[in-house]
Amino acid sequence: MKKIGILFGQERSFPQAFVDRINDKGVKGIKAEPVLIDKVVQAESCGYAVIIDRISQDVPFYRAFLKNAAATGTAVINNPFWWSADEKFFNNVLAVKLGVPVPKTVLLPSKDHPEDTTSNSFSNLAFPLDWESIFSYVGFPAFMKPHAGGGWKSVYKLKNVDEFFEKFSETERLVMMLQEAIEFDAYFRCYCIGRKHVRIMHYEPRNPHHLRYVANHNVPDSLIKTMEKYVLALCEGLGYDFNTVEFAVRDGIPIAIDFCNPAPDADINSVGKENFDWVVEMSAAYAIERAQAQEPGKDNLTWGTYIRESAGAGPAPAVKKTSRAKKA
């Protein structure tokens, strides 16, 4: 019997529905359950063929557990080694390389010195930075946000240079990005499961949280197809098998705003029943697929094309496109 586990935190609706859907399918030799950890011993298997990770970004103990599990044969979704290395500024760098439009973005050093450093630790950093060039490139209004993500925590919308320096002084040891603000005509949030199943959801980030999926943007089918293409390119490049990608559409061009969401919101009360049912069904089907392909004791992780090609392994094997993008 191969076990599929889900590792989660405070969320409730998606984890239980995911487990129930897999078990309801009655696939021979497959069962699902919430992950239960009673010990973590180096190089010993945890007993799961597949684990869906929904929480290790917030719990370092879980991230270390998942790396051990992956090294002993578990197919972890998403790859914990890559997730540990990835951050949102690099995402933008890779998007540019892949030909996906993104906002103009620069990286900023932390306002305060990192722990156990002094001014002598920054011999290679110009002081002051070339602020004039930075502001000219990005322009205003702009967003300032942590380069490693964290939802909407420590995110500022800035109107001018004075506001920038005022808010920058509050960021302490966070490494920030300064990013062009996209004044958009329409906005979309897209699930991507297994780097082949795409659901494009109309979204309005300016609405209250519980109403953000109550939107209906009038856009041509060609724009939907372009977004599908970009979603697949980004997730294949990064290697994420469970992710969301957000697009702000300006003058008919979808600009990727946020696409490092390896544990995206899937709560029925925020995404709505139709989107919830879709992500439960597709994630359950994909987890079963990965469990059936899993080989005990071997490396069962997936890696993005960026890592594979950088390591000289060549592009990843073609993924069979079994589901076209769905519009919500």
Would you give an account of this structure?
The chain has three domains: 2-85, Rossmann fold (3-Layer(aba) Sandwich), CATH 3.40.50.20; 104-180, 2-Layer Sandwich (Dna Ligase, domain 1); 186-327, D-amino Acid Aminotransferase, Chain A, domain 1, CATH 3.30.470. Helix content is 33%, strand content 20%. It has helices at 13-25, 60-71, 80-85, 88-98, 131-138, 161-168, 221-238, 268-271, 273-293, 305-310, and strands at 2-7, 30-34, 50-53, 75-77, 105-108, 142-146, 156-158, 176-180, 186-193, 197-202, 242-250, 253-258, 326-327. The strands form three sheets. The protein has a five-stranded mixed beta sheet. The chain has a four-stranded parallel beta sheet with strand order 2-1-3-4, with helices on both faces. A hairpin with a 3-residue loop joins strand 9 and strand 10. Helix 1 packs across helix 9 and helix 4 (88-98) crosses helix 7. The mean pLDDT is 95.
Largest sheet: 5 strands, mixed
Classify the helix fraction into a percent range: 25-40%
CATH architecture heading of the largest domain = 2-Layer Sandwich
Q: CA-to-CA gap between the ends?
A: 36 Å
Q: What structural class do you assign from the helix and strand content? A: alpha/beta
The CATH class designation of the largest domain is: Alpha Beta
Radius of gyration: 21 Å
Quick one: overall form? globular
N-to-C SSE string, H for helix and E for strand: EHEEHEHHEHEEHEEEHEEHHHE
Number of domains: 3
SS field, number of helical segments = 10
How much β-strand is present in the residues? 15-25%
Report mean pLDDT, rounded to a whole number: 95
Oligomer: single chain
Spatial order of the strands forming the largest sheet: 12-11-9-10-13
What is CATH's topology name of the largest domain? Answer: D-amino Acid Aminotransferase, Chain A, domain 1
Runs with pLDDT <50, length 5+? Answer: none
Count of β-strands: 13
